[in-house]
Structures are given as C-alpha cells and as structure tokens.
Amino acid sequence: MKLSFERQLIADYGRKLVHAGLTTGSGGNLSLFNADENLIAIGPSGIDYADVSAQDVVLVDRSGVVVDGRWKPSSELSFHLALYDQRPDVRAVVHTHSVYATTMACLHREIPAVHYLVAFAGKKVPVAPYATFGTAELAESVRTHISDNNALLLANHGLVAVGRDLPQAFNVAEEIELVARIYYQACSIGEPVLVADEEMDRVVEKFRTYGQQDCSKG
User: pTM of the prediction?
Assistant: First the structure.
C-alpha cells in the first residue's frame, strides 16, 4: 500500500483526536504531506474515526486529485492544500472542533498570551473570518490569516493546527485547547493578566528548541 506509514498515522491520530476530547464522531480532519512523494495523506469524508483504517485514508496530489483510495477525501481538503502551499515548513495539519477553542472561535475572539503555553502556536492564536465549510472561501481565509502561527481559530467553526509532523501538529491542537480553557475560565471570574509581549518573544524563541534533542550530533 502506497504511503502505508502516513496512512496508518492518520488513522491512529484520528482516534487520538476523539480520545483526547478534541472532536467527536467524524468531526475535524487530519492530513500528512510526504515531500519526497509530493503526495498528501488525508482522512476520508464523513467516516467515524473509530471505523477508519489505514486502507480508508486517501492519497491526493498537490492539486487535490485523488491518486489512491476508495473514498472521497475530507470535505476540508481545500484548506489543507492552501496551508501546504502557503507554508513550506508545514508537513501536517490537524483540524479540530475542540470545545473551548471552538467557543472562542464562536465569539470571534483570538486567544491572547494568557498563558505562556500559547507559544505552541505563536504569541497568540488569531481568528480567520467565517466562511462555509469545504469552500474555496474558507481555504482563502485560512491561507490569508495563518501567517507564521501554528494555530488558527476558524470563526464559528473550530481550530486548525500545523506542524513539521503529525505528533507536533496534534500537540499544538491539544495545548491550545488547554490554553483556550484557561482563558475561558479566567474571563469567567475576572480580567486575565496577559504575559508581556517581550516575555512572549523569549518564550517563542525557547520553544523553537523545546523537547528532546539529539545530543549525539555536533
């Protein structure tokens, strides 16, 4: 099976989305770009994550043409393609309907630096204006507003997170859901005190090398 590794990852991380409470049923979507093959593995449209196997994952080329797979690709394929075109550093996209991030998206309220962990996305998580799901208008809204951020709220819709691989994109989605919940709860009892902009500059820089590094090199 072509790109069997990538297809299995999509199936596995689809189930992780549900288990982590980042979506329900078949909501949201995931994709993974293999630069060597110039192909994108993306989940099928409208199939519950619990029922998706590696064989169900669809392969498309950079223009969105299906090259392997028996199902229709995700209805949000167009904004996945737009993200890969806009950001050459991106190799994975995770789209969720996580409750707290989506609550902020329904308020058309960006997530500011209420907690330093927002640095998983950048100095804040901006909001892209509403457009109907699965449309070229939504793809263009995502393309226009992602900038150099690793997460973006989609107004009245949900969250999209990107990364150099699927684990990183998933981690961004998970951490930003936590920050969204903290922001929601802080706003419920008072006025949140934000992390200073210059401190966020330092944190964002530190996050560039956050996590385990291969100490055997260099």
Answer: 0.93
Q: Which two tokens stand for residue 85?
A: 């075109």
pLDDT digits (tens, 9 = 90+) for 186-200: 999 999 999 999 999
Query: CA dihedral in degrees (186, 190, 195, 197; nearest 10)?
Result: 120
Rounded Cα gap, residues 185 and 163, in angstroms: 27
Q: Is the dihedral of CA 65, 77, 88, 39 positive or negative?
A: negative
Q: Which of 6, 37, 76, 140 is catalytic?
A: 76
Sequence-distant (≥ 6) Cβ neighbours of residue 141 within 8 angstroms? 128, 129, 130, 131, 154
- Confirm whether 175 is a catalytic residue: no
Domains of the chain: 4-207 (3.40.225.10)
Helix or strand (DSSP H, E) at 162: strand 158-163
Q: Taking the CB of residue 199, how many other CB atoms lie within 10 A of it?
A: 14
Read off the pLDDT of residues 91-144 as tens digits, 9 standing for 90 and up. 999 999 999 999 999 999 999 999 999 999 999 999 999 999 999 999 999 999
Which amino acid type is present at position 110?
E
Q: For residues 86 and 146, is the Cβ–Cβ distance under 8 A?
A: yes
Closest CA to 98 of 37, 24, 150: 24
